[in-house]
């Protein structure tokens, strides 16, 4: 699974995932992705065959529903919440990297599955 990380996450998450052997890129690392509207970012994730990591469930569940209503598969969405992974807390980046590393190690690298996952903290 390739991961595109929405711009409200620090690029250090993508960097640490790459150090662990995963294919991950943060929106903040590429100037042409920064500030992109959600539908355009979702389309770009599909073009890149990437699962999108985001905290913006409100907008992206609508895009997921639109794809499903047209019987189209997408490369997946991984949602987090500020409650589970609080922004600004010193341990959050490490917890996110650990949970994503576990998810990516288990993930099927096949075609688009339209999976929607709410990421939980690792135990």
In a few lines, what is going on in this structure?
The protein is α/β, with parallel strands linked by helices.
Radius of gyration: 14 Å
How many domains, in number, for the residues? 1
Number of strands: 5
The CATH class name reads: Alpha Beta
Q: What distance lies between the first and last C-alpha atoms, to the nearest angstrom?
A: 22 Å
Strand content: 15-25%
CATH architecture: 3-Layer(aba) Sandwich
The helix/strand class is alpha/beta
Mean pLDDT: 93
In N-to-C order, the SSE pattern is EHEHEHEHE
> Which descriptor suits the 3D outline?
globular
Task: Note the main sheet.
Answer: 5 strands, parallel
| Count of separate DSSP helical elements | 4
What does it look like?
There is one protein chain. This protein is α/β, with parallel strands linked by helices. The chain has a single domain (2-118), classed as 3-Layer(aba) Sandwich (Rossmann fold). It is built from four helices and five strands. The chain has a five-stranded parallel β-sheet with strand order 2-1-3-4-5. Helix 1 packs across helix 4 (92-106). The chain is globular. The relative contact order is 0.20. The model has no long low-confidence stretch (mean pLDDT 93).
């Amino acid at each position: 699974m390739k991961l595109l990380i929405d711009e409200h996450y620090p690029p250090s998450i993508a960097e640490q995932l790459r150090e662990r052997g995963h294919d991950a890129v943060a929106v903040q690392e590429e100037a042409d992705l920064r500030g992109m509207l959600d539908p355009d970012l979702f389309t770009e994730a599909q073009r890149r065959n990437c699962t999108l990591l985001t905290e913006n469930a409100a907008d992206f569940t609508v895009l997921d529903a639109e794809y499903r209503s047209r019987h189209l598969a997408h490369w997946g969405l991984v949602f987090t919440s500020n409650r589970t992974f609080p922004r600004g807390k010193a341990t959050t980046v490490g917890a996110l990297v650990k949970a994503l590393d576990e998810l990516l190690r288990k993930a099927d690298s096949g075609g688009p599955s339209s999976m929607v996952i709410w990421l939980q903290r690792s135990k």
